[in-house]
Write a structure and sequence with these properties.
Helix 7 packs antiparallel against helix 8, helix 10 packs across helix 11 and helix 11 packs antiparallel against helix 12. 33% of the residues are buried. This protein is mainly α. The chain contains twelve helices and no strands. The chain folds into two domains: 164 residues, no CATH class; 46 residues.
Length: 247
C-alpha cells in the first residue's frame, strides 16, 4: 500500500490518477463514439451531443435519453427517467468527497459532477492514498471525462461521413457492450438475475399502462427494491478487492 506522503506534489498525484484511469478511459472512447453516432441520428447537432456529454457525463442516462428522444417522449419524462438513473451518483459523492479533504466548494462540485462508477470504485479502493486527494481525483475523473467527451465529439462529427452500413453497425455496438457487462454479472451473482428479470417484467407491464418515460422510472424504482428484499436474510456481504497501486 502506498502511504499518504505530505511532501507528495499535487502534479505527481494528478499524474498517478490519470495513469490509473487511462486503461478504463480507452474503453470509454468506442462507447462514447457510438453515443455520438446515435445522438446525431436522433436529430442532435454534433455540438449539442458534445455539450450533453460534457455536462451530463453519465453513459447509461445519455443512451436512455437519446432513445427516448427518438421515440418523441416528452421532455419531463426524459428528465425524470435520467434523474432516477443517476441517483446513485449522489451516494457516490456523499461517500467519497468527504475523504478527499477538499476545502473549495467549487472544486467539490466539479469533482462531484464528473464522478462516474469507475472513478468512485478506483478512488475508494485504490491502495494509493494520493488518489484520494483533490489532485488525484482530478487526474482520475478528469481523464475519464476527457476520453468520454473526445469519443462523443468524434462520433458526432464523423457520423455524416461514414457509410450507412458502418454507421448502423457502430450504433449497435452499445448493445453488445451492455450484454458483455450483464452476462458475466448474471453468472457470478444469481441475485442479479432476479433483479434484471424483475426490472424487465416491470417495464414490460408498465409500458401497457404508462408512457415510455414513466415506464422506465417504474422499472428503475421496482428493480432497485428487489435487491434489498433479496438481501434480507441473505449471505454475508463479501469484502471488495482493492485496486492495486499504479506505481
Amino acid at each position: 500500500m502506498t502511504a499518504s506522503n505530505p511532501s507528495d506534489k499535487p502534479i505527481s498525484r494528478l499524474y498517478r490518477g490519470a495513469r490509473l484511469a487511462a486503461p478504463v478511459g480507452l474503453t470509454y472512447i468506442p462507447v462514447a463514439f457510438s453515443l455520438g453516432l446515435l445522438a446525431v441520428r436522433a436529430g442532435l447537432s454534433p455540438w449539442i451531443a458534445s455539450l450533453m456529454s460534457a455536462i451530463v457525463f453519465a453513459g447509461a442516462s445519455q443512451f436512455a435519453s437519446i432513445a427516448m428522444l427518438r421515440a418523441s417522449v416528452p421532455p419531463l419524462e426524459i428528465v425524470l427517467a435520467t434523474l432516477f438513473i443517476n441517483l446513485r451518483h449522489i451516494v457516490y459523492n456523499l461517500a467519497l468527497l468527504p475523504r478527499l479533504g477538499i476545502r473549495s466548494l467549487v472544486m467539490r462540485c466539479f469533482i462531484g459532477a464528473i464522478m462516474t462508477d469507475e472513478a468512485f470504485s478506483f478512488g475508494s479502493l485504490s491502495t494509493d492514498a494520493g488518489i484520494r486527494t483533490q489532485a488525484g481525483m482530478l487526474g482520475l475523473a478528469g481523464t475519464l471525462w476527457l476520453c468520454w467527451n473526445g469519443g462523443t465529439l468524434a462520433g458526432a462529427l464523423l457520423s455524416p461521413t461514414l457509410p450507412p452500413m458502418l454507421n448502423a453497425a457502430l450504433g449497435l455496438m452499445i448493445y453488445g457492450l451492455f450484454i458483455g457487462l450483464l452476462v458475466p454479472a448474471l453468472k457470478k451473482a444469481p441475485r442479479a438475475v432476479a433483479i434484471s428479470a424483475g426490472a424487465i417484467v416491470i417495464h414490460t407491464v408498465a409500458r401497457q399502462f404508462l408512457p415510455p418515460g414513466w415506464a422506465m422510472v417504474a422499472a428503475i424504482l421496482g428493480g432497485s427494491t428487489i435487491g434489498p428484499i433479496l438481501d434480507i436474510g441473505g449471505d454475508e456481504e463479501t469484502k471488495p478487492e482493492q485496486v492495486a497501486d499504479v506505481d
